Amino acid sequence: MENQKLPSKPIKSTGKSGKKFTIFIFLLLIAAGIVYFLTISSVQTITKIRDLSIILFVFESIIICFFLIILIIQFSILINLIQNEIKPILKTTKETVNHIKGTVEFLGDNMVEPVIQTNSKIAGFTKIISSLKSGIINKKGR
To answer: How many CA atoms lie within 13 A of 17 on its CB side?
Structure first.
């Protein structure tokens, strides 16, 4: 009994939440470092950082406008595709379905119904013959 081991429970790793927490702490330390740097910096350094930030924001705005123009072009291509490619395909598909529906109705009226009527008449005739046979057999047996 002394050597018997208790079953161990698997340890669940924190996974994504641990990574998120680590990234949050890292970004918090970077922000604290930037604040510290700005507090000990001179006015000229802060002015240079401000000018550099303005340049970066303008550059970012230009990139965003470029991607917005690309997005608008892609939407116009998509709308053109829907109007000129998809609508005609849907129209011909609808016409095909209506044609098939007419074909099925025609076959039902001209092929299936006569076959069903013929089969029901044959079944009725067979039932009459079997009834007559059983009546003749019963009369012979008496």
So the answer is: 3
User: How far are the Cα atoms of 23, 29, 119 from residue 126, in angstroms, in the given order?
Assistant: 86, 96, 10
Q: How many domains does the chain have?
A: 1
Give the tens place of pLDDT for each residue, 105-142. 888 788 888 888 899 999 999 988 888 888 776 666 55
Question: Does residue 32 fall inside a structural domain?
Answer: no
**Strand ranges in 6-135 using DSSP code E only, listed in sequence order:** none
Contact 46, 38 (CB under 8 A): yes
| Residue 67 located in a structural domain | yes
Place of tokens 């240079």: 48
- pTM beyond 0.85: the answer is no
Distance from C-alpha of 15 to C-alpha of 30, rounded to nearest angstrom:
23
**So what's the pLDDT on residue 1?**
47
pLDDT at position 93, please? 92
- Percentage, residues of the chain above pLDDT 70: 85
What's the DSSP call for residue 10? P
